[in-house]
Design goal:
Length: 210
């Protein structure tokens, strides 16, 4: 049992797929998603999000009304959206994390705790100095921007971050930092307008056809 607001569900997995797992994932993707399915990470992410949303909504994963229209150009590469749920998806080289909220707004970000020196420098440049570790500040900023809905179309430096809260303009987000694996930094941001409770957090470490 992992403490979470009672309206947030979280799933994560490692993106490496066998041939049968990839085929299973492709079978539940939409035609638009299949055109973008050039990596196991993409297929795993959409499969994870569709499966999670389907369980919550009580429908088959392939029937989940998922869209990802870019607000700038109209292409199919925007932030995933599902009617009736607030959802967010994040991918890095070693993990995929999906969250779904029954109310409010939610965002998630995952990063490897150890990365290249160039990546660390880029994160430090944006995250800036502070008492919180740079990688946690960065995932907090990214999660808040995703919960806002505009993502990196906004300047990340406009997000104020403490250990358990982020602010963006007049909006306030609560932060949760789950630890699904020692090598991952994960942050979930959600609007602070609803009371906290708890929910099972299903930790998925491998994909199977069953």
């Amino acid at each position: 049992m992992t403490l979470l607001p009672d309206f947030i569900h979280l799933r994560w997995l490692r993106p490496g797929l066998s041939a049968s797992e990839r085929a299973l994932g492709l079978a539940i993707l939409s035609p638009a998603e299949i055109t973008r399915a050039d990596s196991d990470s993409f297929v795993a992410g959409r499969m994870l999000l569709r499966t999670l949303a389907g369980e919550i909504l009580g429908i088959e994963a392939q029937a989940v009304p998922l869209s990802a229209t870019c607000p700038d150009c109209g292409g199919p590469h925007g932030q995933p959206r599902i009617a009736g749920l607030a959802v967010s998806l994040s991918r890095c080289a070693t993990a995929v994390v999906a969250v779904a909220a029954l109310k409010g707004s939610v965002g998630v970000d995952v990063e490897p705790r150890q990365g290249s020196a160039e990546r660390a420098a880029a994160i430090m440049e944006v995250a800036g100095p502070g008492s919180i570790r740079a990688i946690q500040r960065w995932t907090s900023v990214e999660a808040a921007l995703k919960a806002d809905g505009r993502g990196l179309r906004l300047d990340p430096r406009n997000v104020g971050v403490t250990a358990d809260r982020a602010t963006l303009g007049d909006a306030r987000y609560e932060l949760w930092h789950p630890e699904p694996a020692p090598d991952l930094q994960v942050t979930v941001a959600w609007r602070a307008s609803a009371p906290a409770g708890h929910i099972d957090s299903a930790i998925v470490v491998a994909m199977s056809a069953g």
